[in-house]
User: Fold this.
Amino acid sequence: MNSNAELLRQLKIDKSHRESPGGGNGGATKIALIVLAVLIGLLALGGAAWAWLAHRPVEVTVATAIAPAGAAEAGAVLQATGYVTARRQATVSAQITGTLTEVLIEEGDRVKKGQVLARLEDNALRAGLDANRANAAAARASVVQSQTQLEQALRDADRQEALVGRGLVSRQIAEQGRTQANTYRAQLNTARRQADAADAQVSVGQVNLDYTVIRAPFDGVITDKAAQVGEIVSPLSAGGGFTRTGIGTIVDMDSLEIDVDVNEAYIGRVKADMPAEAVLDAYPDWKIGAHVIAIVPAADRGKATVKVRVALESKDVRIVPDMGVRVSFLERRAEPVADAPKGVLVPAGALARRDNRDVVFVVADDKAMRHDVTLAARNDGEQRLVTQGLAPGDSVIVTPPDSLTDGAAVRVATRPSP
Assistant:
């Protein structure tokens, strides 16, 4: 009991240590203000940290969605690099020198054979053609006049021959009438030749006038526009910096093929019509069927290579001239698989669940874009077949964090092989 009483005495407040009434409230107020300032500072720091973390790019690992194999693999006996080339390509120019009044093409335009690409100033040529036509008309009128004179001279000669038989005129007069008719016949022939020459001048003038209209020589795509309205074009490379030798370049996209340089030490492995497979540098996951057209019978002594022409067995708008390409020459032609699956393959870790849906996040412009996807029943272990929602070549995020949202900023750390 004594010990309990002692404890109670220790818990009592000692009134002698109270602060004076005048200073107690002031001290408590200062302490409260200090605590409030500290809390406000902590909240501000927390908000800044949250804003920085919220906009900080999330570091992610990505992989490339690939198309499943659709053909039986064929062994490659040799690989070589080269470029896509066009066998049919032309720089279109005017056949006469003139000033451009219209340029009707732009890069990327598809044109048809005979389509008007540009026009030159044609006032002088049009006036010359009108003058040639007037001369031709005058020449034809001269032919008509000579024809009429000849017909009259022949009738006069016939009458004089009849009078000679009756003894009314001398034979000399009849011979003079026949000579006059022959003179008119010669004049008629001359007039006809002059009319033909005048008609030829009209044709020349018409051809020169037609030269002021530049047309496409074949179907193709404009890859370069080389001149503008107001510039002078000429088939000759003369006239200074303002004279162009071409209007533009047209390429027949159906004539695209591949030129590769094969080391001369391995050229014996390549045969004409040999199957091959081409992969463009721009689309590394796209395999294009091909075959050898010909081996050019000439070697480059500087590079110790031989040029090989390779045909593309399928045409696509993605294939353009001068693209880099890698060609694999195959032992045999790949056999197609009848039940080739449709879709793309992605790592199983790239799949996530959001709102009870299967989704994949694709990296585009340093942002994570959510794609709702449809999965096939096929399961390839570490890879899953996506039938809808993705395209070959898409960069998908592997193991996306649960906090990742659509449109979030990301930074690619590594890109493992698919």
Notes: Confidence is low (pLDDT under 50) at residues 16-24. The chain is about 30% helix and 35% strand.
